[in-house]
Recover the amino acids of this structure.
């Protein structure tokens, strides 16, 4: 096939403006234009896995709504799987699977299994094709234990795995996940990521993922798009991003005895609290490991407890923003 | 590299099969909770009974209503009620659109390859409304033994088709009101009063309505065509002014008009939603 058909997502100067009417005291109302998406151009090819990150309100959800045909763009061009999303919404729906982390597309009163059968019917899949696929998803996402439980009784982690299965019943070419790991515990997150890696390897599904969790991106995506105030602030590899922005992690340790500020070889002490009973060490994960830093701290003081913090997306975006002003 | 070819559409099941599978699955699911199904069905049955009692009280206190005696007015009520309850069974979910919008469920509907309305009818089919429809049928049959009708071919034709066209007309009003809710998300009270008020007018003899209302509920929202006007023919009566009895042959035309109106409003409503966003 020619290269043109390899593009799963094409955005060309995509824009979306909302009119927000705000009351400004008294009876006057002022209409204000909000540029939720302000000229984004990007191209995502078949088989890519792309993280789409940005602060809250940066324009991520608006972009996804335009990609899926839920929202008409105010300007520019969007093509998803070669289709124009809004006019060809139902044709496009056969090619994409969408998981909105905050919303459900499952039937709340029904056993989880029932939702998959209903979706297969909505997608008009013959039983011979739908059944094995559903079984495969049940196994891959380990859903057996709660298949006959009504969806409203599932835990968040169980429900989210169900949502992902629901989005994949019809084997979409493009899977869009909007905050799929929000609120999940570590084990559920890891299970979901592991499944997505296997699924992509087997089916070649293109993945677009929005998240607040940088480790989702590290585990799943080769490429990152950073959006800020409706504009693309970065488009490239995760490694490239970490070269421009220090994706520092911080290891916070609680010590058995208060200590003066400790110095270790592979990390920087970025703060002491509680008279030195709690100390924070910042390190670059591509140069050392959390275990290494912990070992170095343990060598000089007794560690009672620890937490590890991820770089916040808001910080990354802020750094990129200041860099672009300086350059 | 995975294949880029989309799954061939030729081996998909037909649309009709797909709807049938959906409906069957919804029915099966709702029958799983037997007791809750029966409670809901009985509940919806008695809601209908209550409405009938209201009309009964009205009718027993007025010897004639709009020129019809008690039995004749009950025939109008019975036929209109049967049509309305069938429409409610099929299209009743459309009045929950504001809730769908608020809960973000509408977006889940929009990312599926089935028309929105078809999804609402099949994927959210509420079997409990069967109770209401059953009551409608029961009342219509009881009234038939009571009112004196000349059972010729025309009467039998009208008896069978009137509830069906009635269902079509009320169904279109449901869809019309649903379409309006895309604009006025918090306006379900307004649209409900529109659907339920319209249905109330349809259950009464059209002659009992004030002239402007009579015209409105015949030539714009033709609820008088769901029972009253065909009843005029069956009862061999002339209609009041602006409502000649021969209009009783035209429910198909009225149904077509209402669906045209409903389709325009519904489409524009969906388009408005995708333009404005959630």
């Amino acid at each position: 096939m020619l290269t043109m058909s390899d593009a799963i997502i094409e955005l060309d100067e995509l824009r979306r403006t909302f009119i927000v009417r705000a009351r400004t005291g008294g009876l006057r109302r002022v209409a204000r234009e909000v540029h939720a998406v302000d000229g984004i151009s990007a191209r995502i090819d078949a088989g890519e896995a792309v993280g789409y990150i940005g602060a809250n309100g940066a324009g991520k959800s608006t972009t996804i709504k335009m990609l899926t045909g839920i929202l008409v763009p105010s300007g520019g061009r969007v093509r998803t799987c070669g289709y124009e999303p809004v006019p060809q919404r139902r044709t496009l729906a056969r090619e994409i699977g969408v998981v909105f982390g905050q919303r459900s597309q499952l039937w709340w009163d029904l056993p989880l299994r029932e939702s998959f059968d209903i979706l297969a019917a909505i997608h008009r899949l013959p039983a011979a094709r739908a059944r094995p696929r559903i079984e495969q998803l049940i196994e891959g996402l380990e859903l057996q234990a709660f298949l006959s439980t009504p969806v409203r009784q599932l835990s968040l982690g169980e429900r989210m795995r169900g949502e992902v299965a629901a989005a994949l019943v019809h084997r979409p070419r493009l899977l869009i996940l909007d905050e799929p790991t929000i609120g999940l515990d570590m084990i559920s997150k890891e299970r979901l990521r592991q499944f997505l890696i296997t699924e992509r390897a087997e089916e070649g599904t293109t993945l677009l993922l929005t998240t607040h969790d940088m480790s989702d991106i590290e585990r799943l995506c080769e490429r990152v798009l950073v959006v800020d105030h409706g504009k693309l602030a970065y488009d490239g590899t995760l490694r490239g991003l970490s070269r421009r922005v220090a994706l520092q992690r911080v290891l916070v340790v609680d010590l058995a005895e208060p200590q003066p500020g400790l110095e270790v070889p592979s990390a920087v002490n970025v703060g002491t609290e509680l008279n030195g009973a709690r100390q924070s060490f910042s390190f670059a994960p591509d140069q050392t490991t959390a275990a290494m830093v912990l070992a170095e701290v343990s060598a000089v003081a007794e560690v009672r407890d620890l937490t590890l913090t991820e770089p916040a997306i808001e910080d990354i975006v802020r750094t990129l923003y200041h860099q672009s002003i300086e350059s | 590299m995975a294949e880029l070819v989309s799954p061939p559409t030729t081996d998909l099941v037909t649309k009709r099969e797909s709807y049938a599978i959906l409906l069957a699955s919804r029915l099966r699911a709702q029958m799983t909770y037997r007791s809750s199904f029966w409670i809901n069905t009985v509940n919806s049955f008695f809601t209908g009974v209550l409405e009938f009692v209201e009309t009964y009280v009205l009718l027993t206190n007025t010897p004639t209503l709009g020129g019809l005696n008690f039995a004749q007015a009950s025939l109008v009520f019975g036929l209109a009620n049967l049509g309305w309850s069938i429409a409610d069974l099929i299209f009743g979910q459309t009045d929950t659109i504001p809730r769908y919008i608020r809960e973000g469920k509408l977006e889940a509907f929009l990312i599926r390859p089935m028309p929105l309305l078809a999804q609402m009818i099949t994927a959210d089919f509420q079997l409990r409304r069967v109770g209401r429809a059953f009551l409608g049928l029961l009342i219509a049959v009881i009234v038939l033994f009571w009112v004196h009708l000349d059972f010729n071919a025309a009467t039998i034709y009208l008896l069978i088709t009137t509830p069906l066209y009635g269902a079509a007309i009320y169904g279109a009003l449901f869809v019309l009101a649903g379409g309006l809710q895309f604009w006025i998300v918090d306006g379900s009270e307004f649209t409900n009063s529109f659907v339920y008020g319209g249905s109330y007018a349809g259950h009464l003899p059209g002659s009992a309505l004030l002239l402007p209302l009579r015209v409105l509920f015949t030539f714009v929202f033709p609820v008088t065509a769901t029972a009253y006007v065909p009843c005029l023919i069956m009862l061999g009566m002339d209609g009041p002014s602006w409502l000649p009895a021969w209009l009783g042959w035209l429910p198909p035309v009225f149904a077509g008009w209402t669906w045209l109106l409903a389709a325009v409003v519904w489409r524009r409503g969906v388009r408005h939603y995708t333009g404005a966003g959630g």
Observations:
- Chain B has one domain: 40-276.
- Residues 1-7 of chain B have pLDDT under 50 and may be disordered.
- The CA atoms of residues 197 and 277 of chain B lie 31 Å apart.
- Chain B has twelve helices and two strands.
